[in-house]
Each structure stands twice: as structure tokens, then as C-alpha cells.
Amino acid sequence: QVQTVESGGGWVQPGGSLRLSCTAPGFTLANYDIGWFRQAPGKEREGVSCISSSSGRTYYANSVKGRFTISRDNAKNTVYLQMNSLKPDDTAVYYCKVWVGPYEYWGQGTQVTVSS
To answer: Collapsing DSSP states into helix, strand and coil, what is residue 92?
Structure first.
């Protein structure tokens, strides 16, 4: 069983920044594709960004392109989501997902609140 652990969420004013972290104790993330998703109250979960394990290629949703950056530090077994120029619409619970073959593993999420 793989369990991802998200951290780094919190409250920030519009225009601010946060960096989310995703780890997986006892499991090597470097070998797998990782994605960040978010779910706002009353809305469906949506994909935000993902990073390939093999090529390092990244993907961003149009709503965050140019503001968010996904990266991985394999030595720390951690995937990051740097979020800049945050907007109230970015308020959501952010989840990290790892794809392991046909399976998907999620964490409990971390709350991000953007408000003045």
C-alpha cells in the first residue's frame, strides 16, 4: 500500500505564494509519474499539474500555467508544487497522486486558502 503525504498548505493573501510538498514514506517516488490535483468546495476534483518520471516532462492546467511549477527532488523523495500569484479561485484541498502501473494512490490532501 502506497500512501502519499501532502504538506505546505495554509492561508495566504491574493498574490502570495506557497510551496506544497508530496512525500511517500517507504516508497520511492522517483520511479513514477506524479500529479497534483485539487478540489474546491462543491466542485469536482481537477488536475493541476503532473511530472513524468522518465522524461521529466511537465503538464499544467491552463488555469495555473505560468503561476505554478512542479518539480521533484529525488534525493529527498519529494515532489513540489510551487504556487505563485495565488488567486482566491485557487482555494481548494490539494492532493498528490502517484501512478503505479494500473493503480493510483492518493494522500489525504492539504488545504490551501487564498483570501484577503
So the answer is: strand
Q: How many CB atoms lie within 10 A of CB 83?
A: 26
Q: What is the maximum alpha-carbon separation in the chain?
A: 42
Instruction: Name the nearest CA neighbour of 79 among 26, 23, 37.
Output: 23
Place of cell 509519474: 33
13 burial (CB, 10 Å; 0-12 / 13-18 / 19+) is: exposed
pLDDT band at 55 (very low <50, low <70, confident <90, very high): confident
Task: Give me the residue label for grid cell 493541476.
Answer: 48
Cell readout for 29 is: 517516488
Instruction: Report whether 9 contacts 92 (CB < 8 A).
Output: no
User: pLDDT tens, 76-110?
Assistant: 999 999 999 999 999 999 999 999 999 999 999 99
Backbone angles phi, psi at 85, to 5 degrees: 50, 50
